[in-house]
Amino acid sequence: MGIVVVGTVAFDTVETPFGRGENVLGGSATYFSTSASFFTDVSLVAVVGEDFPEEHVRFLRSRDIDVSGLACIPGKTFHWTGRYGYDLNEAQTLDTQLNVLTQFRPDLPEAYREADYLFLANIDPDLQLEVLDQVRHPRLVACDTMNFWISSKPEALKKVLQRVDMVVINEGEARQFTGEANLVKAARQIVSLGCKRLVVKRGEYGVLMFTASSIFAAPAYPLEEVFDPTGAGDTFAGGMMGYLANTGNLSDEGIRQSIVFGSVMASFNVEDFSLNRLKSLDYREIEERYRTFRSMTHFEGLDG
Amino acid sequence: MGIVVVGTVAFDTVETPFGRGENVLGGSATYFSTSASFFTDVSLVAVVGEDFPEEHVRFLRSRDIDVSGLACIPGKTFHWTGRYGYDLNEAQTLDTQLNVLTQFRPDLPEAYREADYLFLANIDPDLQLEVLDQVRHPRLVACDTMNFWISSKPEALKKVLQRVDMVVINEGEARQFTGEANLVKAARQIVSLGCKRLVVKRGEYGVLMFTASSIFAAPAYPLEEVFDPTGAGDTFAGGMMGYLANTGNLSDEGIRQSIVFGSVMASFNVEDFSLNRLKSLDYREIEERYRTFRSMTHFEGLDG
């Protein structure tokens, strides 16, 4: 069993200085699973309403994503509306219609409970804990969260962090969770809670991974055009875990490489609205950009 | 002949959330030359007033810095007063007393005109052009500038950029100079003016170096305590050029390594007020932190 991701499948309405996407396909599980599908088998657990078009399900299936965990229940699909200014690092949420998401109680199909890799996308930490109880012996579990849960359910969130191998959050969330302005101190505090690795996303400034004894810094790919940052974090996580599940290499070097593959995937995703860029992407482009990351960061042992 | 730096020697009064330094030793040429002195011979061209204490000159001499280009003229030494908030990336200037700096017309001692490496620290671009006319056949010339010159003397500055090998400026300045919000586009524009390499400083997010055909990204060293960012940029440039002058290796790999040594020096400098941390630094610490940078950034060919 490859990767299982539990998260959201949604409609997004997004405005950036470069355009507008209305009711486009979005959601954390959507971005994650599409990104991971370039590397390995991935199964999705999420809920949608009756208004969710068959066309989107067909797209997920076309990526070989197992959608048997995608529940369709009466009501409307989760809808997020947001806007980005010229500082594309942070979204401003204009409207959140949870709709069927309020009834989401993830119940993993039997086969999913044998997952080797589990990604708990940004949902209620109490639900993340329920999912953790259902999965039997994963090799690696990672989770995401957001400011809303940090302020409303810090205790449940703390329990989640203690039970996962890897936490993937953004810089502001790391600071908010610990109340510590210095990122290194904030990171040390989170790692000391019990998660082995903390991956801090910094938007256009890349990613820092902290363990108890080391730090790894990966830049973001410097892009001349960023159209829509929506889903970049989940696309990053999908690339990272997809690569890990594909290689099975959980050494420090293997995990670093997975972070670079995650960064590569995120860099493609922001080049167009919704999942449009991932839809046209092929694996050779991914490999080529990975090599560019290497030539962009290494300063010893370069080829020529 | 090693490095010649033309810039300022100053008194700084600096306030950060962690303390205050009053009338401490500062100035671009001071930070640059002290940092470079860990790697190579460096000669300084600057001006001070009669109030400049012999003790500071003794300090520079103790670092084997050639101060025969340090003019002492009637009047008071340049004095900068600034403040940093919790966001230590940007200083707020509270007061600037140029004093003797208004009479600064760099006239290089004959021996200095044979410099192999020249750093034009942040001064009036017209003066930078005068210095360029005096130096005969440097192997590498780099320059810095600031927002004030970008808005008041863009044409002179453009001429400087066309005559140097390397421009070292911060992110906001690159955007301001080109009027381009996207950093990659801004960088491409500056490189196309004629300088071969553009080094963009991004504070706690590290450094990006652009050439016409490549990008190199170096993170900043993640510090748990940053006391005073004053002089970090000049300390960076001093470490970078000091290393280059020491090795003479101007290959792409050599220049990348010099950027990492520059980042190492800057990371030490911000750990204490004024030049206090550089005063206590020894070369083994520099080498050790360089190795940490390597282990922090490489994701292939790690030792273990």
Automatic annotation (TrEMBL), chains A, B:
Chain ranges of the Carbohydrate kinase PfkB domain: 20-274
SUPFAM superfamilies: Ribokinase-like
Keyword Transferase (UniProt): yes
PROSITE patterns: PFKB_KINASES_2
Keywords (A to Z) from UniProt: Kinase, Transferase
Superkingdom of this protein's organism: Bacteria
Any GO molecular function: kinase activity
Signal sequence extent: none
InterPro entries named among the record's database cross-references: Carboh/pur_kinase_PfkB_CS, PfkB_dom, Ribokinase-like
This protein's record includes keyword Flavoprotein: no
PANTHER family registered for this protein in UniProt: RIBOKINASE, SUGAR KINASE
Protein name: Sugar kinase
